[in-house]
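cache lookup: miss for this entity combination. No prior model stored, computing from scratch. Input as submitted by user K.M.:
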Amino acid sequence: MRLISSKIWIKTSNQVLFIVLIVLAAGFASNYFRSDKIPFIEDWSAKSNLVTPSGENLEISLAEASNLFKKGKAFFIDARSLAEYDAGHIKGAISLPYKEVDWKFVEAMTGISEESAVITYCDGETCELSMELAVFLRNAGYKNATVLSNGWPVWKQNGLPVETGE
Amino acid sequence: MKEEIRQKISMTLYHGARIGLSIVFIYASYDKILHPAAFAKVIYNYQILPDELINLSAIFLPWLELVIGSLLIIGVWLPGSVFIGNILLIIFCSALMYNKARGLDISCGCFSTSQGDLPESTLYLIRDFSFVVIAVYLFIKVFISESPGLKRSS
């Protein structure tokens, strides 16, 4: 004996169809008339996320970043949490968790001139913390702030110098 | 007499679940409908959907939640809305579990190397799982009570 009759499945599929039609109409209409509409399909690739709304590309390549590192000409800023920083970070990097940037900014950036090359990084190709931190730093006057995309794993994988602890 | 009380409790539970779930859906949809771009970013951070589907989901998903929530609260088209509600909640719950298992911080789309210290995602998971339980209960109630041989309860 079937517990659920086939009749209710027919009823359900009809209702689902109508619900979908209502949703499609509402979605199209609302996105058409609103002022802050978004495109139906957008480029979400990691590269496009490193471009500011004004069109500046903040990405720095690994080769460039490691070159600056070897010459000691860049400050690396770790945008992840302090716990993750302690567990391992680019050698000499400064911890400035983006989530606490408002009250850690002054302490972290003391002694770094606004002209310096500043490179932010976090963990994961789509991690936005480094990008947001770089934008924040640029607004604060660090006009040479750039982002090392997918910084921490890429740095590690290439055997570049790392350290643990504070 | 005893049967009457049991039926009363069962009815209260059923309507409680129906209204509770409808509030969850309507509440969840409200902010997303107002801010589609922000919601698109949230979907992107889950890193599950292909790029082409991110904005489409951000545009239509909140409306689906609102329509389902509204149907649940007024109590019409229950089989259809309960069915979709179940599917949605199971998808949300699976997405959370998947990202928790691979150590992804969904607030920033970052991978956390220190797994296990993400109480926030555990809380979300418990919350979403309890919604799934309520939704499955409603599904059983609605689908069995609408089948022949059993009395409709609404």
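stored under new cache key. Chain B is about 75% helix and 5% strand.
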